[in-house]
Amino acid sequence: MRDLTAQVTSSLLQFPEVTVEALKEAETTLDSGLCGKFSGGRSGLAWLACGPQLEVVSSVTGERLSAYRFSGVNEQPPTVRVVKEFSWQKRTGLLVGLEEAEGSVLCLYDLGISRVVKAVVLPGRVTAIEPISNDGGASVSTRHLHQSLRWLFGVAAVATDVGRVLLVDLCLDDLSCSQNEVEASDLEVVTRIPAEIPQRREAVTREGRHLCFQLRSPSGIAVSTLSYISRSNQLIVGFSDGYLSLGNMRTLKRAHYTRLAGGRIPVCALTFQEPESDLCNCCYLWAVQSTQQSEGNALSLHLLQLAFGDRKCLASGQVMYEDFKYCVKLYSLDLTGGIFPLRGQISNTKFLSFQTIEKFCNHVDKEDSVNEVISPDTSVSIFSWQVNTYGQGKPSTYLGVFDINRWYHAQMPDSLRPEEFLHDCPYFALWSLDAVISMTSPNLLLDILVHERSLSRGVPPSYPPPEQFFNPSTYNFDVTCLLNSGVVHMTCTSFQKETLKSLKKSGPLTSVAIHDSYSRCLVGGSLSPRLVDVQPSSLSQASEEQLEAVLSAAVQTGSLELLTGCIKHWTCEEQPSSAVNLRFVLEWTWNKVICTKDELDQICVPLFDGSCNFIDPQTLQSLQHCQLLLSSLSTVLNCFLTEARELTEKGFTDLTNKQLVTSLISLYAQVVIWFCRSSLPPEDLDDHVHLSRPFYNYPLIQSYYTGHRQKLERLSRGKWDSDCLMIDGMVSQLGDQVEKLWQRDEGGTGKYPPASLHALLDLYLLESVEESDKHAITIYLLLDIMHTSPNKTESVIDSFLNAFAIPWGLIKLIQGFWLLDHSDYENSLALLFHPATIKTVPWQHTRIIQSLMCQGEHRRALRYIQMMKPSMSSSSEVRLFLTVLLSNRCMVEAWGLLQQHTTKLNVEELLKHMYEICQEMGLMEDLLKLPFTDTEKECLEKFLQTNAGVQNHEFLLVHHLQRANYIPALQLNQSMKVNLMNNRDPRLRERAVARNSLLDQYSKILPTVQRKLAVERTKPYRVPSSLLREVPRPKALSAVTRQANAGNVHTRATFIGKVLSKFREVWLGNEQKTGISQYYRLLDLVVRPVPSCSAAQDESWQTLCRASTSFVVSSPLKSKTHRSSSQKNSPGASKLNLLETPLVAKVIEDSAVKA
């Protein structure tokens, strides 16, 4: 086994000077030894004690949190021997055991106020303290204890140097009286449990004493350690002679008594460990034997198996083992000399720490998970020790990790064999902590703590991961070291991560480097399962199999520096082998892309065809693995693009296509993973099933948009463009390829919404559509899904934005479009007007205004124009804006807009449109009040004259009168009189009388001659009949005309055609001769006019011409020219074929088939 080395991540965070001075003073004056430990709880505390001085510091920063100097009854100060963390009533404190000249004192120290709140005199010298309960009375938390203990409020087990074990009542129900270690209470020791505990306790408490039950009478053998296991409800007692006692706290009787294999060596530490899903209801107890303070050099660990008859889960959620069966030793580990047989003679071994880390994972996919008793998925024991070797100035410090689940998998060996250290042990890993000793020497190392939350494994290289990936050497975790002057933080990285670092730092892949990297990847579990069984010795050095394995490990683990470094080195190196190496890596990368895409398709098909009902963690991990792999491969191809030199146009296009395809597939996989995490797929095929999670209800969404399109068609009445849904505009801007894509799946119409999530996600594989446009369509559909789901929440949208770093302005824009399509005009305009919203582009302006006008929202359309001030680049846009202004009776603004955008080419078109709208809206009277140019006046007169109707003639009459054109007005009025002779409508005749009287008054202004001429011109008159006489056509004096014979125009082409036709007449007489093919070849030489290409031919020609060009990415949501989806003639056709997903056919349930 290769040694792993911890790395120091912080400097020595020294304790405050006052803390160091207080401890140093006590050590100097009282000749006491310094001791210290981490509290082990979640409070993040560490304590240091020397003589009567107690210092409590932060385990993170080293700052002083609390301090206290204990006083004794006589002049001799006490000595702090034992400290245990204890919490009660939302308060944190310490149980402190003081040794005095004539006995001991148990103190309850409150960290919040830095003083002693309870103190009890103990018989003998205290050696161990263990909290049992911090509650009392009829509490659920004490239900598992003996009935007599339930009358006590707070129970602590205390052991002495003569083997006595006491259960002390802490009297937490009475903290009113002030008490300290000098005025400690006495104990009322009860050897046999009386019948009336409450009365006895009340009487004892009234006398100022604490009730105490003697669990074990003095035996003369000192108790070295205590440990209470709540899951088995057992109090474990370790003795200085190597014996171990297990006591049941429900019956207060000893269940087992045994001697450890280490002999008469004190038991200094105990810890509990539970495996995962043991069918025999077994759990385990670690016992550590060490000489520690006494002379000698012994340190050994023993794993004891505790078998129980039942394992159940209590109402509080706590796991409880009951019905103890037996205890047997199954494993031993000697840390003295046998573990390092070749590292010199060891003079002294010091045990530092022991802890167990367990992590539970709820299996929500199991149907019986409600009643199942959970067990830890991760269960490791972590221990550390120091070794002094002869001839070395500094001690060596080690940290070992024992994985009990992997020990089960290794068939539960009874000891660690020496050869397992030289190779790879499947259940034990070792880290060296010499870095902290080198940095902090000569400071004394007191304790080591591994942070539970930091314990984790890296990302598996493949799924399922190789066997080596589950070894404890793949763990990463953070460590804090407690020294006599401060704390130091470290990190222990896995062998897998160390391998990745070596891959990143390795130079060009030579034969030796390939072999070494292959060996490290094999041991580190970074190879795929296919290559795990292939040992390096069975392959020749620098073989292609080993190189492919190293490349796979580098890509799968994200160590891309290896590949990119080699690519840069080979491109700069002018060697014949460099080109071969580059070609090999490029071909391997592209083949890896193809294989990964096939694997991705196989994973995704069950998500969309309805064959699976939920997404299991294995599927999600496989998707993540594919996405990470594709992302790494895309980076490698991008490195080829940036570093490649002197590429041909075809080679550059081919490489560009490969990089583009890989990046698109990676994005597609990333979106699929997000949809899976949001529980959107698999789609719900049963309409009667109402899910609490959001799901894609295609029939409901489709019915809404079909009905809304029909409604817009009715409202348009041929006047407006009914195709004004914003989502239809967004889809149409992406080109015809989206319509073809959405027609591919069963039930697809080519329009929004897509028939399935599969059709939506295929949008991300279109190479000519920009990523932001794809996200916009997806966001729009997510809004529809949230709107139709029973639990409407925006957390899904927020998650999508965060996952793909979508700007907030884009989501506001899409929300505004969605609200407009759902007729929520006010909120839609509020979002579109928001300053953070991405500014709309011309086609969006047009659709928004068309939609508002089509649905009768004229005022909101005018408000939109006034707020957004869109630009007008075409006559159609000017006509639309004129219509909006005139619909809101803004005549002056419309007239100014028209004059601003008229040109010689469109003036008549715009004027005619405005006159028509004014006539339709009844605004002709306001129009005639405006000043007209000659062109405008001419167009108006032409418009009023061509449109029949008395009203138009009257408007024209008013127009003439307003501009003092009296003669045309009189002439028009006279013609209207003639037309009115055959009309008997009384209202028209009444209007004619008023009009005639008005014109008579105007006519008086004119001279009599002009008035008479104006009237006479309009009267009908008869043209005198005339005789028509035909005269001969005059002849030109300078030429003599001849009538030419009618005939065809002779050209060179017609001449050649006639000659060939003569040849054909001759050759037809001799059909059996073999000269016809020559004739046709001759016909091919004739130049004929080429007809214009059809649309399909033109499209294929354009596709062929664009095959060698690079891909163009357009701006978000803007109009663009799209390339044809046909890539048959393209050099990159084989690459772009990867951008297709297999067709998905919905799986029909058996019940549906029977129905």
Descriptors for this entry?
single chain, 1155 residues, alpha+beta, Lipocalin, six-stranded antiparallel beta sheet, 32 strands, disordered C terminus, Protein ELYS-like isoform X1, ELYS-bb, ELYS_dom, ELYS/MEL-28_NucAsmblyFactor, nucleus
User: What's the end-to-end separation, in Å?
Assistant: 63 Å
- Sheet/helix structural class: alpha+beta
Q: Average the pLDDT over all residues and give the rounded result.
A: 79
Which percent range fits the helix content? 25-40%
Radius of gyration: 47 Å
Beta-strand segment tally: 32
The number of helices is 37
CATH A-level architecture of the domain at 15-220: Beta Barrel
Strand proportion, as a percent range, falls in: 15-25%
Instruction: Note the overall shape.
Output: elongated
CATH top level label of the domain at 15-220: Mainly Beta
CATH fold topology of the domain at 15-220: Lipocalin
For the sheet with most strands, the description reads: 6 strands, antiparallel
Low-confidence stretches: 363-370, 535-542, 1072-1131, 1149-1155
Domain ELYS-like: 724-946
Main location: nucleus
Pfam families: ELYS (PF13934), ELYS-bb (PF16687)
Subcellular location: Nucleus
What does it look like?
With 1155 residues, the chain is of the alpha+beta class. Helix content is 40%, strand content 20%. Among the domains are: 15-220, Beta Barrel (Lipocalin), CATH 2.40.128.630; 572-678; 687-835, no CATH class; 948-1015, no CATH class. The chain contains 37 helices and 32 strands. The strands form seven sheets. Strands 2, 3, 29, 30, 31 and 32 form a six-stranded antiparallel beta sheet that branches. It has a five-stranded mixed beta sheet with strand order 1-28-27-26-25. A five-stranded mixed beta sheet has the order 12-13-14-16-15, with helices on one face. β13 and β14 form a beta hairpin. It is elongated, with a radius of gyration of 47 Å.
